[in-house]
Design a protein that fits this description.
mainly alpha; 17 helices; 0% strand
């Protein structure tokens, strides 16, 4: 801040007059902005719908919960990689250095820009349409690839009961049918998806509540401080990756902001509540299982909590946990599909993609074309050997998160007067430190990628760049109709 010293009265009056003129201009500009925005809102096409329900708080909490976690399924490799003590400390500490910064960024920007598209809007506002489009490509491709994995996991559980689904045409058919059926629920309305997520979340968590209660008399607290069995080497890469991907994706629900009732109030509450639910959902079953069962570190792989449930309470609990895993996977699929579909709708609103991408169902007001495109992409990936593609999706997500943190910081500089119903209570230096720590983990993920992952990720990024310039060509040639939403979003920050 520059401090001025006034040496005479006339100079002081001059400054006061300039300030007064600037305030007057600002008032006139603000009034003009309000009138301009009202005219644009009135000019927007009105959609008649039979189901105009907005997403309430509790469904939003569980949608965020399924975007991030879905339960303790998948936390087991942390124990196998580093032992009980480091696993427990990881799930206690990592949320503070990764999850909370990501959730705070999401809370501030989702309330400042409460429209469908989420992180695409943020990058677009911060750095322009090219980066908004590239963010959309990175996050969409990452999302639909992750989406493809969930029906496969469902079929992998089903084949334990119905072996015919292990391979060949029956497996192909089972993946296809499960993907299509689960997608139909999304078409029926986001409110229905939200309340389904509530039911799935409660039911899938119940077996772990029972396991934790039954385990209490059997717990030996000394097992919690074990550094692992002798002779078992620490796998720190697996340990970090397990923590990272079990506590990630807090920003995915931001693409639904336009469908949320009072998003400025709802998002901070929902993110906080989902954070508590997620952390407890990981740490309580982990304490119960590691404390009640003698350590056999090599047994701690994906799915081991079901076996732990059998040791603690019997086979009935193992089966219950496995059923809960399938229900959790369904919740993960529905939440991810919602995020992808509404992201496409938001990109159409921004004018990044053709207006048709924002088409909504006349009956349910859902983005039917976004759901269809996301489902087709997921199905096309489902039948590939996609180990490297999944790793590439994580690589693209990491690139997107680095751009997201950069957008968050730059928007604070670019639009200091922007209305932020929720604002992270820090100055710029504090915000930089807050974003720098999780960015370090993102850089680590990028650095340890294989050559195949670099190649696939480069090709996907090239696709995103080509898509941006192709869309510009379509605009200039008027091959498709585009929304004129870019100007409205740019003006909105000038307050």
């Amino acid at each position: 801040m520059i401090n001025f010293c006034y040496h005479n009265l006339s100079f002081q009056k001059l400054i006061q007059r300039l300030i007064s003129m600037r305030a007057s201009d600002s008032s006139t500009s603000s009034q003009s902005l309000i009138e301009h925005q009202q005219q644009e809102l009135e000019s927007q096409p009105q959609i008649t719908t039979k189901n105009p329900k907005k997403l309430a708080l509790i469904p939003l909490v569980f949608l965020i919960y399924f975007e991030v976690s879905g339960g303790p399924y998948g936390e087991e490799p942390a124990v196998g990689a580093a032992g009980p003590l480091f696993a427990i400390l990881g799930f206690l500490i990592f949320p503070f250095i990764w999850s909370i910064p990501e959730a705070l960024v999401t809370a501030e920007l989702a309330t400042a820009f409460p429209g469908n598209g989420g992180f695409v809007i943020w990058a677009h506002q911060a750095f322009g349409p090219f980066w908004g489009s590239l963010m959309g490509s990175w996050k969409f491709l990452s999302g639909v690839i992750n989406l493809a994995s969930y029906p496969i996991l469902c079929v992998d559980y089903l084949k334990l009961v119905i072996p015919i689904f292990s391979s060949g045409l029956p497996r192909f058919f089972a993946i296809f049918v499960s993907t299509v059926v689960l997608s139909c629920l999304n078409y029926s309305g986001l409110s229905n998806v939200g309340y389904t997520a509530v039911g799935l979340g409660i039911v899938s968590l119940c077996p772990f509540i029972v396991m934790s209660l039954v385990a209490i008399p059997k717990i030996d607290p000394s097992r919690w401080i074990s550094l692992g069995q002798k002779g078992v080497e620490k796998d720190w890469t697996l340990y970090i990756n397990t923590l990272f991907w079990n506590l990630n994706f807090w920003d995915n629900a931001s693409t639904l902001a336009g469908e949320v009732e009072q998003p400025q109030k709802m998002y901070p509450k929902a993110l906080f509540s989902a954070g508590i639910l997620t952390c407890l959902g990981y740490i309580v079953p982990l304490l119960a299982a590691t404390g009640a069962i003698p350590l056999e570190q090599e047994d701690w792989v994906d799915g081991y909590l079901a076996s732990a449930g059998e040791v603690i309470a019997g086979k009935w609990l193992k089966y219950w946990i496995e059923i809960g895993a399938v229900l959790s996977i369904i919740g993960l699929f529905e939440a991810q599909l919602s995020s992808c579909a509404y992201q496409l709708l938001g990109m159409a609103d921004l004018g990044i993609s053709p207006l048709i991408f924002g088409s909504r169902s006349k009956w349910f007001n859902t983005p039917w074309l976004g759901i269809l495109i996301s489902t087709v992409f997921a199905l096309s990936v489902s039948y590939l050997d996609f180990a490297d593609i999944i790793s590439s999706a994580n690589f693209l997500y990491s690139l997107g998160m680095l751009l997201e943190f950069a957008s968050f910081l730059w928007l604070r500089v670019k639009f200091p007067g922007l209305g932020r119903p929720f604002k992270v209570p820090m100055g710029m230096r504090g915000l930089i430190v807050m974003c720098l720590i999780p960015s370090g983990f993102l850089v680590y993920v990028l650095a340890v990628a294989t050559k195949a992952v670099y190649l696939v990720s480069a090709l996907m990024t090239l696709f995103g760049i080509v898509w941006y310039f192709f869309m510009n060509l379509c605009k200039s040639k008027m091959w498709f109709e585009f929304n004129k939403g870019e100007q409205k979003l740019e003006i909105r920050g000038h307050e």
